[in-house]
Amino acid sequence: MSKISLSFYGEEVYINSPSTLLDLQEQISSLFLLSKEDSQELILTYNDNNEKTFQIKTEEDYKIFLDKKRPKIILDVSQSSRIYKQELKEQEETDKNQKKLNQLIKLEDEMEKPNKYEQEKINELNGLIRKYGCGAQALIKNIHSMHNVKNNKQQKIREEICQLQKKLGLPEKYEKVGSMRLKAKPKPKKVDEEKKVDNKNNVHGDYICDGCDADPIVGIRYKCAVCEDFDYCEKCEKELGSKHGHPFLKIRNVNDAPIYFNCTLKKEDK
Q: Considering the domain boundaries, does residue 187 fall inside one?
Protein backbone atom coordinates (compact mmCIF):
# COMPACT_ATOMS: atom_id res chain seq x y z
CA MET A 1 0.00 0.00 0.00
CA SER A 2 1.41 3.42 -0.99
CA LYS A 3 1.80 6.31 1.43
CA ILE A 4 0.68 9.90 1.12
CA SER A 5 1.40 12.99 3.19
CA LEU A 6 -1.22 15.35 4.63
CA SER A 7 -0.16 18.98 5.09
CA PHE A 8 -2.24 21.11 7.47
CA TYR A 9 -1.14 24.50 8.90
CA GLY A 10 2.53 23.65 8.35
CA GLU A 11 2.24 20.22 10.00
CA GLU A 12 2.93 17.25 7.73
CA VAL A 13 1.79 13.69 8.54
CA TYR A 14 2.40 10.49 6.53
CA ILE A 15 -0.32 7.83 6.32
CA ASN A 16 -1.15 4.77 4.29
CA SER A 17 -3.45 5.76 1.43
CA PRO A 18 -7.09 5.25 2.50
CA SER A 19 -9.24 3.46 -0.06
CA THR A 20 -12.10 6.01 0.06
CA LEU A 21 -12.57 9.73 0.65
CA LEU A 22 -14.73 8.97 3.70
CA ASP A 23 -11.90 6.91 5.25
CA LEU A 24 -9.48 9.76 4.49
CA GLN A 25 -11.75 12.28 6.25
CA GLU A 26 -12.01 10.02 9.30
CA GLN A 27 -8.20 9.76 9.52
CA ILE A 28 -7.87 13.54 9.14
CA SER A 29 -10.37 14.00 11.98
CA SER A 30 -8.38 11.63 14.22
CA LEU A 31 -4.90 12.94 13.34
CA PHE A 32 -5.66 16.65 13.67
CA LEU A 33 -8.22 16.37 16.49
CA LEU A 34 -11.11 17.71 14.45
CA SER A 35 -14.79 16.89 14.60
CA LYS A 36 -16.30 14.88 11.76
CA GLU A 37 -18.13 17.96 10.48
CA ASP A 38 -14.96 20.10 10.59
CA SER A 39 -12.92 17.53 8.67
CA GLN A 40 -15.59 17.34 5.96
CA GLU A 41 -15.53 21.15 5.57
CA LEU A 42 -11.79 21.21 4.80
CA ILE A 43 -10.60 21.98 1.26
CA LEU A 44 -8.43 19.12 -0.08
CA THR A 45 -6.10 19.89 -3.01
CA TYR A 46 -3.10 18.32 -4.77
CA ASN A 47 -0.76 19.20 -7.63
CA ASP A 48 -0.13 17.06 -10.68
CA ASN A 49 3.17 16.64 -12.52
CA ASN A 50 2.63 19.98 -14.28
CA GLU A 51 2.05 21.73 -10.92
CA LYS A 52 -1.60 22.23 -11.79
CA THR A 53 -3.85 22.26 -8.73
CA PHE A 54 -6.86 19.94 -8.41
CA GLN A 55 -9.49 19.82 -5.67
CA ILE A 56 -10.86 16.63 -4.11
CA LYS A 57 -14.59 17.01 -3.50
CA THR A 58 -16.05 13.62 -4.29
CA GLU A 59 -15.14 9.96 -4.16
CA GLU A 60 -14.52 10.12 -7.90
CA ASP A 61 -12.05 12.99 -7.40
CA TYR A 62 -10.25 10.96 -4.76
CA LYS A 63 -10.07 7.89 -7.05
CA ILE A 64 -8.44 10.07 -9.74
CA PHE A 65 -5.93 11.29 -7.13
CA LEU A 66 -5.04 7.70 -6.26
CA ASP A 67 -4.68 6.78 -9.93
CA LYS A 68 -2.27 9.66 -10.50
CA LYS A 69 -0.21 8.43 -7.52
CA ARG A 70 0.47 11.92 -6.23
CA PRO A 71 2.36 11.96 -2.89
CA LYS A 72 0.73 14.87 -1.07
CA ILE A 73 -2.66 16.36 -0.15
CA ILE A 74 -2.85 19.93 1.12
CA LEU A 75 -5.58 20.69 3.64
CA ASP A 76 -7.00 24.21 3.87
CA VAL A 77 -9.88 25.89 5.69
CA SER A 78 -12.91 27.17 3.83
CA GLN A 79 -14.08 30.70 4.70
CA SER A 80 -17.58 29.33 5.14
CA SER A 81 -16.43 26.65 7.62
CA ARG A 82 -16.95 26.68 11.37
CA ILE A 83 -13.17 26.56 11.98
CA TYR A 84 -12.57 29.69 9.90
CA LYS A 85 -15.39 31.60 11.60
CA GLN A 86 -14.12 30.55 15.03
CA GLU A 87 -10.56 31.60 14.19
CA LEU A 88 -11.83 34.91 12.82
CA LYS A 89 -13.85 35.50 15.99
CA GLU A 90 -10.85 34.69 18.20
CA GLN A 91 -8.60 36.98 16.15
CA GLU A 92 -11.10 39.83 16.40
CA GLU A 93 -11.29 39.32 20.18
CA THR A 94 -7.48 39.29 20.42
CA ASP A 95 -7.21 42.49 18.36
CA LYS A 96 -9.86 44.13 20.53
CA ASN A 97 -8.06 43.16 23.76
CA GLN A 98 -4.71 44.29 22.32
CA LYS A 99 -6.13 47.68 21.39
CA LYS A 100 -7.72 48.12 24.81
CA LEU A 101 -4.48 47.08 26.55
CA ASN A 102 -2.47 49.68 24.62
CA GLN A 103 -5.03 52.37 25.51
CA LEU A 104 -4.88 51.48 29.23
CA ILE A 105 -1.07 51.49 29.25
CA LYS A 106 -1.07 54.91 27.58
CA LEU A 107 -3.61 56.18 30.15
CA GLU A 108 -1.52 54.80 33.03
CA ASP A 109 1.59 56.54 31.67
CA GLU A 110 -0.31 59.84 31.49
CA MET A 111 -1.56 59.45 35.07
CA GLU A 112 1.99 58.90 36.33
CA LYS A 113 3.13 62.21 34.84
CA PRO A 114 2.83 65.28 37.13
CA ASN A 115 -0.50 67.03 36.66
CA LYS A 116 0.02 70.82 36.58
CA TYR A 117 -3.35 71.72 38.15
CA GLU A 118 -3.04 68.98 40.78
CA GLN A 119 0.50 70.05 41.72
CA GLU A 120 -0.55 73.70 42.02
CA LYS A 121 -3.43 72.68 44.31
CA ILE A 122 -1.12 70.61 46.53
CA ASN A 123 1.42 73.45 46.72
CA GLU A 124 -1.37 75.82 47.73
CA LEU A 125 -2.60 73.46 50.45
CA ASN A 126 0.97 72.87 51.71
CA GLY A 127 1.40 76.62 52.02
CA LEU A 128 -1.75 76.83 54.17
CA ILE A 129 -0.55 73.90 56.30
CA ARG A 130 2.78 75.64 56.98
CA LYS A 131 0.90 78.81 57.87
CA TYR A 132 -1.74 77.35 60.19
CA GLY A 133 0.12 74.30 61.57
CA CYS A 134 -2.05 71.95 63.65
CA GLY A 135 -5.19 73.83 62.69
CA ALA A 136 -4.94 72.52 59.15
CA GLN A 137 -5.97 68.89 59.71
CA ALA A 138 -8.78 69.24 57.17
CA LEU A 139 -6.31 70.48 54.54
CA ILE A 140 -3.97 67.54 55.22
CA LYS A 141 -6.89 65.14 54.76
CA ASN A 142 -7.78 66.98 51.54
CA ILE A 143 -4.31 66.28 50.12
CA HIS A 144 -4.47 62.62 51.13
CA SER A 145 -7.94 62.37 49.62
CA MET A 146 -6.64 63.69 46.28
CA HIS A 147 -3.81 61.15 46.31
CA ASN A 148 -6.18 58.32 47.29
CA VAL A 149 -8.60 59.06 44.41
CA LYS A 150 -5.71 59.03 41.91
CA ASN A 151 -4.15 55.89 43.41
CA ASN A 152 -7.49 54.06 43.31
CA LYS A 153 -7.93 54.92 39.63
CA GLN A 154 -4.40 53.74 38.84
CA GLN A 155 -4.94 50.51 40.78
CA LYS A 156 -8.11 49.72 38.79
CA ILE A 157 -6.28 50.40 35.52
CA ARG A 158 -3.38 48.12 36.55
CA GLU A 159 -5.77 45.32 37.54
CA GLU A 160 -7.47 45.58 34.14
CA ILE A 161 -4.07 45.57 32.41
CA CYS A 162 -3.14 42.40 34.31
CA GLN A 163 -6.38 40.68 33.26
CA LEU A 164 -5.82 41.56 29.60
CA GLN A 165 -2.20 40.34 29.80
CA LYS A 166 -3.46 36.95 31.00
CA LYS A 167 -6.05 36.77 28.19
CA LEU A 168 -3.37 37.56 25.60
CA GLY A 169 -0.91 35.08 27.15
CA LEU A 170 1.68 37.76 27.94
CA PRO A 171 4.34 37.24 30.63
CA GLU A 172 3.56 38.70 34.07
CA LYS A 173 6.78 40.58 34.65
CA TYR A 174 7.99 44.16 34.23
CA GLU A 175 9.51 44.51 30.80
CA LYS A 176 8.99 46.23 27.48
CA VAL A 177 7.28 44.20 24.77
CA GLY A 178 6.96 46.47 21.76
CA SER A 179 5.01 49.45 23.06
CA MET A 180 3.64 47.48 25.99
CA ARG A 181 4.81 47.81 29.56
CA LEU A 182 4.07 44.84 31.77
CA LYS A 183 3.84 45.04 35.53
CA ALA A 184 5.72 42.76 37.88
CA LYS A 185 4.51 41.48 41.20
CA PRO A 186 6.75 43.09 43.84
CA LYS A 187 9.13 40.74 45.61
CA PRO A 188 8.61 40.52 49.38
CA LYS A 189 11.07 42.74 51.25
CA LYS A 190 13.50 41.13 53.67
CA VAL A 191 12.83 42.21 57.23
CA ASP A 192 15.75 42.93 59.54
CA GLU A 193 15.24 40.82 62.66
CA GLU A 194 16.11 43.79 64.89
CA LYS A 195 13.46 45.95 63.21
CA LYS A 196 10.57 43.48 63.44
CA VAL A 197 7.53 45.05 65.15
CA ASP A 198 5.77 43.35 68.02
CA ASN A 199 2.28 43.89 66.58
CA LYS A 200 0.49 42.92 69.79
CA ASN A 201 2.05 45.80 71.77
CA ASN A 202 2.25 48.25 68.86
CA VAL A 203 -1.38 48.49 67.79
CA HIS A 204 -2.74 51.74 69.21
CA GLY A 205 -6.38 50.70 69.05
CA ASP A 206 -8.03 53.95 70.15
CA TYR A 207 -5.99 56.30 67.98
CA ILE A 208 -6.38 57.39 64.34
CA CYS A 209 -3.60 59.05 62.37
CA ASP A 210 -4.51 62.68 61.62
CA GLY A 211 -2.31 62.55 58.52
CA CYS A 212 -3.43 59.48 56.56
CA ASP A 213 -6.49 58.38 58.63
CA ALA A 214 -4.84 55.03 59.46
CA ASP A 215 -7.19 53.35 61.95
CA PRO A 216 -5.70 52.16 64.23
CA ILE A 217 -2.11 53.44 64.27
CA VAL A 218 0.29 50.48 64.09
CA GLY A 219 3.93 50.77 65.14
CA ILE A 220 5.22 54.02 66.64
CA ARG A 221 2.60 56.63 67.58
CA TYR A 222 3.55 60.30 67.68
CA LYS A 223 1.30 62.37 69.97
CA CYS A 224 1.29 66.17 69.70
CA ALA A 225 2.57 67.56 73.01
CA VAL A 226 0.33 70.63 72.69
CA CYS A 227 -2.87 69.66 70.86
CA GLU A 228 -5.44 67.80 72.94
CA ASP A 229 -6.12 65.12 70.34
CA PHE A 230 -3.61 65.01 67.49
CA ASP A 231 -1.57 61.94 66.50
CA TYR A 232 0.63 60.84 63.59
CA CYS A 233 1.77 57.41 62.49
CA GLU A 234 5.50 56.95 61.87
CA LYS A 235 5.24 57.64 58.14
CA CYS A 236 3.18 60.85 58.48
CA GLU A 237 5.40 62.17 61.28
CA LYS A 238 8.37 61.81 58.98
CA GLU A 239 6.60 63.56 56.07
CA LEU A 240 4.45 66.13 57.92
CA GLY A 241 5.85 66.43 61.46
CA SER A 242 8.10 69.42 60.77
CA LYS A 243 5.16 71.31 59.24
CA HIS A 244 2.88 70.79 62.25
CA GLY A 245 4.64 73.39 64.38
CA HIS A 246 4.53 71.54 67.74
CA PRO A 247 6.78 68.93 69.37
CA PHE A 248 5.66 65.28 69.43
CA LEU A 249 5.86 62.59 72.08
CA LYS A 250 7.23 59.34 70.59
CA ILE A 251 5.33 56.30 71.92
CA ARG A 252 6.91 53.01 70.80
CA ASN A 253 4.78 50.66 72.90
CA VAL A 254 1.10 50.90 73.83
CA ASN A 255 1.96 50.07 77.44
CA ASP A 256 4.43 52.99 77.60
CA ALA A 257 1.83 55.67 76.77
CA PRO A 258 1.56 58.18 79.66
CA ILE A 259 -1.78 58.77 81.35
CA TYR A 260 -0.97 62.49 81.72
CA PHE A 261 1.89 64.81 80.86
CA ASN A 262 2.45 68.57 80.76
CA CYS A 263 4.36 70.46 78.06
CA THR A 264 5.40 74.10 78.53
CA LEU A 265 6.59 76.01 75.45
CA LYS A 266 8.56 79.21 75.18
CA LYS A 267 6.39 82.24 74.51
CA GLU A 268 7.66 82.61 70.95
CA ASP A 269 6.82 78.91 70.26
CA LYS A 270 3.23 79.07 71.50
A: no
